Amino acid sequence: LRLNLSTWVAARETAQALKTLAQAARGVAAATADPATASAMLDSAREVMDGSTMLISEAKQALVAPGDSESQQRLAQVAKSVSHSLSACVNCLPGQKDVDMALKNIGEASKKLLMETIPPCSKSFQEAQSDLNQTAADLNQSAGDVVHASKGTSSQLADASGKFSEDFDEFLDAGIEMAGHTQSKEDQFQVIGNLKNISMASSKLLLAAKSLSVDPGAANAKGLLAAAARSVTDSINQLINLCTQQAPGQKECDNALRELEAVRGLLDNPNEPVNDLSYFDCIESVMESSKVLGESMAGISHNCKTGDVPSFGDCVSVASKALCGLTEAAGQASYLVGVSDPNSQTGHQGLVDPVQFARANQAIQMACQNLVDPGSSPSQVLSAATIVAKHTSALCNACRLASSKTANPVAKRHFVQSAKEVANSTASLVKTIKALDGDFSDENREKCRVATAPLIEAVDNLTTFASNPEFASVPALISREGSAAQVPILQSARSMLDSSTQLLKTARSLVMNPKDPPTWSLLASYSRTVSDSIKSLITAIRDKAPGQRECDSAIDSINKCIRDIEHVSLAAISQNLPTRDDISLEALQEQLMSSVHEVGHLIEPISTAAKGEAAQLGHKISQLASYFEPLHSAAVGMASKLMHHQQQMNLLDQTKTLAESALQMLYAAKEGGGNPKAALAHDAIAEATQLMREAVDDLMVTLNEAASEVGIVGGMVDSIADSMGKMTKSVSGPEELGSLASQVTGDYSQLALQGHLAAATAEPEEIGVQIKLRVQELGHGCIVLVQKAGALQSCPSDSITKRELIEGARVVTEKVSMVLSVLQAGNKGTQACITAASAVSGIIADLGTTIMFASASTLNAETDTDSFADHRENILKTAKALVEDTKNLVSGAASGQEKLARAAQSSATTITQLTDVVKLGAASIGPDDPETQVVLLNAVKDVAKALGELIGATKCAAGKAADDSSMFQLKSAAKVMVTNVTSLLKTVKAVEDEATRGTRALEATIECIRQELTVFQSKDTPVKFTTPEEFIRMTKGITTATAKAVAAGNSARQEDVISTANLSRKVIADMLTACKQAAYHDGVSEEVRGRALLYGTECTNGYIRLLEHVLQVLQRPTAEQKQHLAVFSKRVAGAVTELIQTAEAMKGTEWVDPEDPTVIAETELLGAAASIEAAAKKLEQLKPRAKPKQADESLDFEEQILEAAKSIAAATSALVKSASAAQRELVAQGKVGSIPANAEDDGQWSQGLISAARMVAAATSNLCEAANASVQGHATEEKLISSAKQVAASTAQLLVACKVKADQDSEAMKRLQAAGNAVKRASDNLVKAAQKAAFDKADDENVVVKTKFVGGIAQIIAAQEEMLRKERELEEARKKLAQIRQQQYKFLPSELREDED
User: Fold this and answer.
1) Does the pTM of the predicted model rise above 0.70?
2) Distance in angstroms (rounded) separating the CA atoms of residues 985 and 877
3) Pfam families recorded for this chain (predicted)?
4) How much is the average pLDDT of 980-985?
5) What b/e readout covers 51-65, taking b as 16+ CB neighbours within 10 angstroms?
6) Contact 1302, 1218 (CB under 8 A)
7) Torsion angle of the four alpha carbons 828, 829, 833, 834, in this order, in degrees rounded to the nearest 10
8) What's 1282-1334 look like in SS3?
């Protein structure tokens, strides 16, 4: 079907193209003055029409009989005929005949190369060599002229192609003349072979020029033409190197000049990439090549002076390569500059590279010529075979890649078929080459010639198919701005080539005559020009780096947005923000969300471009800047419509934060510039990317909340409607309408996949239909509910809408119950398993409680005459019934839901009955034997646990295939169930046998521990987690149980063994649970987790071996057996030690004791620091406003200060406890005296840490009083500043006390010091805020200056008097403070004085 569709599309496109061709042919014929040419054009077009008609007819026949080889062959012949007709039609265009004539002339001239003998020489060797060099230069120049003319008019191309064919004829004659001067036949064959290569390359050049002139916009035409011209130059250079013996250095200069001429075309309108270099790779390439060129130019000059001609030739070759590299880098850089302009359109890579196919085709044809040439030597044959194998392999790989990339089935099949043809013909040719290599006979050479024909044809067909415009690359469209940006780079590169050409010509003459001073002057002048051109090139490339101009423009734009937002924020603060009435709030919100969404999508592309894709940087930056103007406008408009001031400020602040993060991103991107090697800039880009993402997320959260609050529910309704086709899970009603709409949308969107799967797997099929129907009805109800919620939020007072909303909620609730009902009806078995599992879970919990009563000897029989024998038969009978239920459960998993439901219900009923009769039996044993009661109850508890696991496995395996992993888990659970029931039966039988009760209890315990170990070793992550301390506590019970087990083994008393069994079961289970829960805690590393699980397993296995040995001792109580008990107990003890060490490792450095006074102090000090920070910010906001102080404004600030006071009071309380403990320890060690240093005057440092802690508390108290008084207008800012400074000073003294008195390596003290530093910083910030407030207040005070002369003098005198008085008071206050500090300094220990200094 796809093939028929592709054929139909191709036929339709062919008909459309033929219509266009007919119109074009009539136009060309009408515009042609020559009647014969016009007639030929119309005739050839008519042939194309006729052939296309036959082609479509044959294609139709081939579709009817796709396997008919005869119809396929006819189709191929007709297609080839149409291709020839099209070529003939194209040849009738103006200028094409001249190119065809030139091609014909080259073909005729090349026949001279087929002669068997070379004509005798008519010139001397020097004359032949000179002619060859001259004609080579002329031919190379003509090739360049053809390249330029192909982009011009048809007459220019006609002239250039005619001149090229004439120069080729002359060059060919000179080459044949040169071949006559060769010394050996082998050299002569090589010359002729090179001439044939040049002939083929020349034909390719004319064909490429012809194609480009016909369709200048054809994809890859320009690249094919440049490759063909380069091939002509390379072929000429190979011939010159082979057969000329010029004066040393001349050949290298001529080759270099031809190479420079060939690469000059790369600088003509660079709209396609030259290579794969990035922009910064281009800069590096230019730097490297310029360095190499500088060294080689110096070498050229030096070797000319010294006469070292071989070295001169080497330097010229190196300089030529460096110049070619510079030109290629310049062309690639100019392309990247042009394509990076935001107005330019980037091209894209084609499916195949036609240039690669053309080169491979030419190489294969040349190699095949050498293969069939009678004069080829064995080495030349092997070389040609290697070339064929290399290029055919590359073509096959290219076809394979192309077939995997294309979505066109016809093209995919054609590439695969072409690759097969090339591979098969290559294999056939290789066989003949092997035969030829063994025997160079005429017969084998003829076979080889015959074998080359299919290969050449297959490669030609493949190259023609690969040249299809459908597979070609699309060149970039460079804008005017981009072209203008390319000019400096291209001008510098052209100047470099021109001056380099002159330099090489000058060096060529200078090496022959090094004593010519004017030539030396010219060489120096050209060297300076080359050097200046390269410097200019490097500067131009760096200045025109892609994206830099766009970054600067975007930075200016976003800076303007930030300034505008700041102005709007000031207006909002002063309640003067004008409301925007020309657009609705909903429209503004949608515009803002859309803009933020687009900005978020651009973050990653900008980051990627800034790190390594310079060509894309300008485009992405321009897109980002274009979104900020509507984003800023929408944010300001939306803020103006919001009613609450806090909402306005939040929106504007978050918008400004986003703009600032974008600005940081732009600066980082500009610095990175797309350079993949700028590692430092990459770190800044990553950081800016993260900040910008966070800003976008925060703003989107705010906008989503606002959307719910203002009742914008259109998107939610669309989401529910979209989810209707999928079906989902459950709806619940939140408390508020806005969040209800969002919650309904999210919950219904989560029901789809699960509902769809439930409907698909439901039994019977009618249930699935009911599920779909009920879920769809629920969706309709959700849509109505969300719509009514939005309507009510838009008009809260509408009573009708309220009633409709209530009704909608009732309908949704009803639909939810209907969905649940139909789901339960479709999964009776699964639902019954869930119910049974819940019942079993309750039974296990009840048994645990009963075991506690039994352990406390409080489980009594109902009557005094009750005995265990009365209940034994009931227990055995019920246990056997449970075994039958187990079988039914296992078989029910593979059957229908009905059978599974019956089996689950029956098993739940039976385990309930079994538990009841076992509890009665245990009670009948009496409280005098609690250990036996516990053994019996544990046995039935094991059965209940196993049944719970079995029901869970049955639920998972229901409806699964027999080879599913869940079925294996079901079988394993069934085995455990049977094992535990068997163990219960044995225990029941052993209850009345005192000689075996202990042994039976121990066996049951060992089996239980093994099952617990299996659960422990599973990969399931525990639901709950526990602390390492709890884990360590659980390991202590193992030590006790181990000692008890050894004692029981030594005594061999059944009572001791039963007690050991009961205790062992509990402690091992508790340890394994705690071990796994602690190991999977978030803060535990993988290595520590692995150790914990390993040693938990080792400890359990060791304990099992200990219990097994106790069993052996009970059966054979020898002294030797009892001695081994100590060995097993030591192994368990060793494993417990490893477990404890592992638990200690789990703690790490982040685990702290919450009761530690230093930890409490740290927490409280950090809280106090945060409160003081908040108070400082509040003060900074409140003080600058020139408004009367209001009670509610001061209240918030007062509350924050009081909160700080409470936190610091709690911190100092904890500090006093810690300091007291440290003080007592130091006194006990004798490091500190038990009485103050000065008993009469208890100074600041007399009690060390305690005194320092008290100073912090006292200073904080003063700070709170001063702050409250300052806010309420009862005190000055100076008092507040002084109090805050005292807090900072006392905190610093506290830190000094900690440092002197405490252990320097104590982690707790380090954290305590960090918390103290935080309080100090917070206090400093409070001082700055208060000083700013005082400064603002001073600015706001207005001084009334008296206008009278006398009054003015008096005013000045009074002011000066006040100033002098204040200065005197300040000086006195400083002296007083110095005296106080000097008195207190006497009691400061010597070590603290050094720190104080």
Assistant:
1) no
2) 10
3) I_LWEQ, Talin_IBS2B, TLN1-like_RS, VBS
4) 86
5) bbebbeebbeebeee
6) no
7) -30
8) HHHHHHHHHHHHHHHHHHHHCCCCCHHHHHHHHHHHHHHHHHHHHHHHHHHHH
